[in-house]
């Protein structure tokens, strides 16, 4: 049965709340993995997993536990690449699907922007989390859960 994994260190609270409600509504196991304890409501379906504070400890824990068909919510592109290699599906907390077809271009753009910043160029950071982002994420998560629920009926 597929599991929902959340790279919780950088997951906006509003996205976290959407995931909690969706997991409860559909009976889908969801794990929030972070370098610290994430406040979550008591739930049979939603669990927090705090890992050591080492570099990429949360990412490594997620990759180790992922199985093919699981869904990972993350904006971390190297983590997304590792998840895709393991056969998981990946979406950002804005509802954008990360796939084997688009991940390399995104990593190249991220690296290019890092090079610009290192050379002293001022670039803007990520835009704020908007109502539109919230809606897109909730809709994308609902689509994945509906597909998962249909394909796993007894």
From TrEMBL:
It comes from the Bacteria. Signal peptide: none annotated. InterPro entries: UPF0178. Coiled coil: none annotated. Belongs to the UPF0178 family. This is UPF0178 protein E4T21_13715. It comes from Halomonas binhaiensis.
């Amino acid at each position: 049965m597929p599991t929902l994994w959340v790279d919780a260190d950088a997951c906006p609270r509003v996205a976290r709340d959407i995931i909690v409600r969706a997991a409860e509504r559909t009976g889908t196991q969801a794990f929030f993995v972070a370098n610290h304890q994430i406040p979550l409501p008591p739930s049979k379906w939603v669990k927090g997993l705090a890992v050591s504070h080492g570099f990429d400890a949360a990412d490594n824990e997620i990759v180790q536990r992922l199985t093919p068909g699981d869904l990972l919510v993350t904006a971390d592109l190297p983590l997304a690449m590792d998840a895709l290699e393991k056969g998981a599906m990946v979406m950002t907390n804005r509802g954008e699907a990360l796939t084997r077809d688009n991940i390399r271009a995104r990593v190249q753009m991220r690296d290019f922007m890092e090079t610009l910043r290192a050379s002293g160029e001022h670039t803007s950071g990520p835009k704020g989390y908007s109502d539109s982002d919230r809606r897109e994420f909730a809709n994308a998560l609902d689509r994945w859960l509906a597909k998962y629920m249909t394909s796993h009926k007894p």
